[in-house]
Write a structure and sequence with these properties.
- This protein starts with 5 loop residues before the first strand and ends with a helix.
- It has a two-stranded antiparallel sheet with strand order 1-2. A two-stranded antiparallel ribbon has the order 3-4.
- It has about 160 residues and is mainly alpha-helical.
- It is globular, with a radius of gyration of 20 Å.
- The protein is built from 4 helices and 4 strands; from the N terminus they run ββαααββα.
- About 65% of the residues lie in helices and about 10% in strands.
- Helix 1 runs antiparallel to helix 2, helix 1 runs antiparallel to helix 4 and helix 3 runs antiparallel to helix 4.
- It has one domain.
Amino acid sequence: MPANGWVSGIKIRNQYFLAIPKRNMKTKYIATLAIIAFLVHIIWENAQASLYVGYESFSQHFPMCLIGTVGDVAITLLVLAFMRLLKEDVTQATDFLALAMMGFVIAVAIEQHALLTGRWGYAPAMPIIPILEVGLTPIMQMMLLLPLSFYLANLAKSAKSAFT
């Protein structure tokens, strides 16, 4: 294997040519994570839309759900950047627990800010977390889907490496 962050290539007289840098693998992981996060969040956003005021029909809520999903993907990638500052890979149970805890804090902050600024409101059907006074489903969304996105991206990475 080539040194200095190179994964593979053609070796001639102890020199590597046409080598692939490791960062390309990381770029693929980031893209996979973003796609997975987009898919799971767009489903969740649309499923919980009726729990918000003014989003009873699909045509009313899909544009806002799409915007929210893009924000959720951005949060996922920012969390990835933060996690990469701390460690190389997110693979252990404690990593996923940390992701769930980060998801909780981020979601509570977003929900409280949005409610205080009038960006959105809850329909009567939204279950509310006492003391925090925020909706349960958006908090669960980030607590569950943030670690799930990383887990599924890791599975995809493992499956791909098993076949190459």
